[in-house]
Amino acid sequence: FPTDAERSAFGADVQAKIAAAQALVEVERQRKRAGLTKTAMAARMRTPAPVLSRLTNAKAPNPTFATFGRALGSVGLSATIKIHKARRGEPALKVVAG
Q: What does pTM read for this prediction?
């Protein structure tokens, strides 16, 4: 990378995509646990099935908060976003399922 700022921006983008993928893995896990088909999940989200398919099959998912919220709600999950001062080396986004 030509500059430290560009390297940092790239790293933050990668971390955000990893966090989105981790969160969607948890949604998918819950969908399967609930015995819900993707078609039924899409209906609950009020979104076309191809949109859900792109979201769950993307190599680098990038859902909006609204889409992610509908996905969570469709399988009975919720999320809390906690904003705090970052510690050195801490990723800007991380997913903790519990």
A: 0.77
